[in-house]
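Q: I'm writing up a methods section and want to include an example of the input and output format. Could you take the sequence below and give the corresponding predicted structure tokens, formatted cleanly so I can copy it straight into the document?
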Amino acid sequence: MSSSARYRWFSQGDINGFFALSIDNLALLAGMSGILIGIFGLPSDVVLKQMVPGTAFGVLVGDLLYTWLAVRLARREGRQDVCAMPLGIDTPSMFALTFGVVGPAYLLEHDAHQAWVVGMAVIFIMGCAKLVAAFFGDAIRRSLPSTALLGALSAAAIALIMFFSFTKILAEPIGGLVALGLVLLVLIGGVRLPWRMPAVVTSVLAGLAAYHLATHLGYQPPALQTGDALPGLMLPLPSLAFIEGLSLAWHYIPLAIPAAIATVIGGIDNTESAALAGDTYATRSVLLVEGFATLVAALCGGVVQNTPYIGHPAYKEMGCRAGYTLATGLFIGIGAATGLIGVLISVLPESIVVPVLVFVGMEMSAQAVLMSQPRHVKALGLGMVPALAYLINIELSGLVSAAHIDVSTLDQHMRQSLQVLTMLGNGFIITSMLWATWLIWVISHRLRNAALICGVAAAMTLTGLIHSPYADGRIFYPWQPALPPLVYSLAVGYLLLGGICALLSLTNPRRE
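A: Here is the clean output for your methods example:
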């Protein structure tokens, strides 16, 4: 095909992609609102009229820029099948920032404005950190095996995205299972719907119909906890209000920086994922857009960062091009600014909007296996362990808090078990990538590379970028007083393993 051929940026698949990506973001906005309003008690006006529009505006900016990148790539390569990178609200940091920053900031003085500006300030710092890290993305991507990058995403997809989606579905299974079943029947099973109806929107409508029918017949579903919302103009105008929150925001840096780094690593992973699916984007461009969109969200009142999503192969499989990201950005951004998103959050049960996340998680885990060399597949299993630890830690922490258990009163064995679980889960995306990379280098007899990975893991352990012993995942200095001895022990273990790899490299030739 001639490079001058005009790129048709919209196709039939973009309809499904639009509903999938829009509902994905809508589900996360609903989750954010439910946590802040229903659990921490923030006023619904502040959440729905200030935090939601600002966060959504970051999605608008990011998706518009990713649309432009796709059009540019299609014109440069003369291809019609280029699929834009999906972007939206970051799932892990949505939980981390609502439970670890905005909610606790509100509980300090029950000042909703203060909680809002602190959240803005934390996101602003994260956006700046991501812009700096973007310039090192290509180097990181070239130096790591694709199996390790995909494995980290696969671990997150299975342990977090799919798990939390199923908790919402089974909490309200009537509408949830109907919606999930239709998504899997059509997008996985290839079953055709009458009149070529879009799978995702059909699943939502069918789930909603089942939900309301059961309600009229006496079914008592879980109560929606996002308050009442009415449409109205609530423009996310740029401001310097975040400056008010900087003095408190620095206390949350240990949580913010690892979360920012995790999305940068995720962006690198997603670029590799897109390349394997046939669309080779420049890693730096992808990461710069991510950082810029997060910065814009912070300036406009957002409290959760944005990130490229892990579902590019799934959207490409749907037949998407660039129309779905353009439509999603406009719908989420304009919808939030006019109050439409707030209304939808108030009336749509989460159980019928999260099934599309299950599909995305399944596609990513499948891609990690299919795109890996057969002898490297074992590394995927090793990379899954830290993600599972993070999942268990989230659930266990919630139970401990709800039961008002004082951890300091537990016996030494239980305290040590909890600390090990915390350390294994904190920084899980980076840990998963490092562990999988180490094993791949071992399988390939590239033992000097394996030794280097051990050194990097030891350095990160001594600063808390991985294996932080603290519940909030904070980073620290190696010489910080009262640092748990297990931190030093783990770092020494990594160094000793690295030394063994280095010595064995002298007697074992490198092989591919």
